[in-house]
Amino acid sequence: xxxxxxxxxxxxxxxxxxxxxxxxxxxxxxxxxxxxxxxxxxxxxxxxxxxxxxxxxxxxxxxxxxxxxxxxxxxxxxxxxxxxxxxxxxxxxxxxxxxxxxxxxxxxxxxxxxxxxxxxxxxxxxxxxxxxxxxxxxxxxxxxxxxxxxxxxxxxxxxxxxxx
Length: 164
Fold this sequence. Notes:
4 strands; mainly alpha; two-stranded antiparallel ribbon
């Protein structure tokens, strides 16, 4: 919710200030995913956002599992934190190699969406909507939107940069 609100607010703010939204978004997403990686540790501190119980004693250790109220569960907060740290590293390494403004932003959607849709499926505390959790549906939409935007923006003959 906060990320979507931030994107909407950023879009409105850049338009009002006559700044190129996609260029600014490309600059922000490496820091955003890094903040998300660090923020997942708040779930650990609060004892929330964990996965299914792990009953095999051989797997009852961190980073595979975390002990919540005397019961071992999948450490999904850690899985997502690690995924986001890797995403930060990939975005950071490629930040200067993007061909068009907005491509890094689209890559963030794809990377974050893939990880979140898979890891969310391991959690036990999420709101369901049909066969998937609400966060999984949203994550799948992020992946699709990121892919569609990359393809459309990078078709031969597409404009090279965003207009302010």
